[in-house]
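Work through this:
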Amino acid sequence: MNMQKKDKNDPLLLENQVCFPLYACARRVVNNYAGLLKDSGLTYTQYVTMMVMWEHEKITVKDLGAKLYLDSGTLTPVIKKLCSLGHIKKYRDESDERVVIVEITPQGRQLKEKVKDIPQKICCRISENKQGFSMEDAKQLKVLLLKLLSNVD
C-alpha cells in the first residue's frame, strides 16, 4: 500500500472529477426507473424514446436520434424492439427514400397511460432521501446538465 501524501489538487483523483458523480448518479437514477418500468416491458432507453414519440407522434430517425443524443448504432435496436412490441412503426418517406420515419401506433399511445405516474414516483424517491432534494434543486440541476450537454460533443 502506497503511503505517499496525497495531493488534494491532483487532477486524477477520483474525488476531483465531475464525470464520476455524474456517471454514478446516472446509473442509480436509471436503475430506479428500471423497477418502475418493469410492468410496461420497457427499458429506460425505450421509455425515453417513447417520450419523444408521445410528443411528436411522427419523426425522422435522424431527428429522433438528435433529440435523444443517440447514434444510429444505439438507436436502431431500440426502434426495432419498439416496432416488434407494436408501439411504433418504421417506414421510408415516399418523397425521399433515404429518410426513415418512425410513427407511434395506437398501442404506443395507450402505453402512455400505463407509465404516466413514473416521473412523479421518481421525484418522490429522490426527495425522500435523508438529505432531501427539492423540486428547485431538480430544476437547477436540469439547467446545469443541459448546459453541460450543450458543451460536450
Summary: The domain at 41-106 is CATH 1.10.10.10 (Arc Repressor Mutant, subunit A). The radius of gyration is 20 Å. The chain has a mean pLDDT of 91.
